[in-house]
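Closing statement on the iron/sulfur cluster sub-project.
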Amino acid sequence: MNPSISYCGLDCSGCTVHLLSKEENLSKKDLMISEIIRTCKEHYNVDFKLEDIKGYDGCKTANGNLFSGCSDCRIRNCAIQKELESCAYYEEYPCENLKEMFKIDPSAKERLEIIRSNFKTN
Ligand code: SF4
Ligand code: SF4
């Protein structure tokens, strides 16, 4: 399975929080941080301050450089607790939390459906 595809189907390789860790241009970084703060407020109603945001590894990182938005994520913590590599493997897929995520980013659903179809055919 593609390691940058998170439990919920989002692609961490395209996530601004993750891309921030690779950006060297300071003014671009500031713009990205403002975008992260705006998006987290709009989609998750979470207020972050500038100092809360640095560069992070993806949602599935094992080394602990994790964005608090990820470490506090209900979907992530649920999948980890169920020892699932992806929500796609959950027998009662999709749960209400995941359906909410699909409304925010429908491409997450598309990715999990592909994982499920591959899982069923193997
Ligand atoms: S932290 Fe949660 S919402 Fe973010 S990518 Fe991971 S599972 Fe999805
Ligand atoms: S209940 Fe299943 S689909 Fe929902 S977040 Fe947990 S593991 Fe993912």
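The radius of gyration is 15 Å. With this model delivered, the sub-project is considered complete and its resources will be redirected to Aim 3.
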